[in-house]
């Protein structure tokens, strides 16, 4: 590749860092200003510009432009500022990008745009988007359930691009080996359908057989074209997410981040909290608030941990309760989803089951020690809810996980104040440390970003046939030992500033589990070395 084409290729472009010799050799003579810069000089110049941007969305747009032009420099800069950049590149600012995607569009960012009306174009689309690159990782979304903000049609492609940015920043996945994929199945959001500048298919979501067949053609075509690929599903709707995962997970390395990634990170957070409080998992009573993809996925993973620590399934299940819009879930409810059913309770377990139609009533009745919010219902962990939990549990673990920030069930300072400092808190998006009564509370970020990059890297390094339950469990345990239990106010999860270290630990644990189960398709005599060697780093 030479000349203008090379300058316009973000995977190969070095901009002003092309040396004079390279400029002569590659047909770049006269295409750049005379000064040859080092990557550090480029990064400094870019960071200065970044700092002039007034809002986080402006900052994100600036970084996206850099990403579009020069991936190496983008990741070099991200590496220097990882904890500061994550909330800008990723959640919560990514939600603003998605909501304004059509209006702000300037570049398709090397994504593959699949159109549900044209299944015959799937193969060509994947080929065009890959452009000869060997794709090892795809993040695909149909954007029916973006974060907690719902259906955003084609605009949801940004979540696939953003998750992949985190894969590289955290785990060193080579950006030339990844592909973000949008499945444009239409949208049910009226404002998009009515927006003359909306860039996606202008019709209601296609569901049912046509949708299922499209997904199947996509998955099988992608597998044929890229036989070493790990397939990450993101932000599908509650009705399709588990169905799709179950269809493919036993014969291909398939991952659903909302179900499995969140399950892992919350299990780690629970284990971290128990390490701090010296409690046993078997004594916990677990309440899900918002029993959708994430809520049920997390409960399944935490329950698996109860069982792994010696409890029978029946005993473990007795300690789990779920609340959704209708209140506590009961087994006579015809609207239960297949994922909710196993967690539904019987009315005769309670004196006044008819009263259990709101969170507070349920908290009073079941006395949870762990409360996890994945409801998209902001402010729902009220003072009374937190006070009631605190009255019944020495150390309530309260995790408001709904994203973005505006949807959090409660903010950490309130939870800590209302619980007189007894609650252990983790949130979906980053929050600043808080000082209350002389104790500084670091708030762990229970976001799947802490684990999905390492999970993917470990699976890819092992070329594992599938992503097994054992590999997932290994990931959940990998962050243990990184939580400092000796400090008052310590977070239940390691800080995002240690993202690279966490990702490497997770990757090693996952690859080890794959080997232990005989799922690896390459020999791995030295797993840590293999994981280390597989990581791309941003340099010219
Ligand atoms: N922190 C993380 O890593 C992480 C990961 C995944 C999802 N999430 C967040 O969790 C939330 C849910 O995501 P999801 O993928 O499970 O979506 P989902 O649509 O599958 O589930 C949401 C559930 O909440 C229920 N709900 C809605 N309003 C409610 C109310 N008023 N009271 C009780 N329940 C209510 C819905 O009926 C549904 O069952 C989102 O905000 C998302 O950002 C966070
Ligand atoms: O994207 C995130 O920040 C986490 C999670 O996958 C979500 O859907 O909220
Ligand atoms: Mn998600």
Automatic annotation (TrEMBL):
InterPro entries: Aminoacid_DH-like_N_sf, Malic_enzyme_CS, Malic_N_dom, Malic_N_dom_sf, Malic_NAD-bd, Malic_OxRdtase, Malolactic_enz, NAD(P)-bd_dom_sf. Its cofactor is Mn(2+); Mg(2+). The keyword Glycoprotein does not apply. (S)-malate binds at residues 403, 447. Residues 259-515 form the Malic enzyme NAD-binding domain. A divalent metal cation binds at residues 234-235, 258. GO terms for molecular function: malic enzyme activity; malolactic enzyme activity; metal ion binding; NAD binding; oxidoreductase activity, acting on the CH-OH group of donors, NAD or NADP as acceptor. The active site is at residues 90, 163. Keywords: Metal-binding, NAD. Pfam families: malic, Malic_M. NCBIfam families: malolactic, PRK13529.1. PANTHER family: MALIC ENZYME-RELATED, NAD-DEPENDENT MALIC ENZYME, MITOCHONDRIAL. This is NAD-dependent malic enzyme. It comes from Weissella diestrammenae. The lineage of its organism: Bacteria, Bacillati, Bacillota, Bacilli, Lactobacillales.
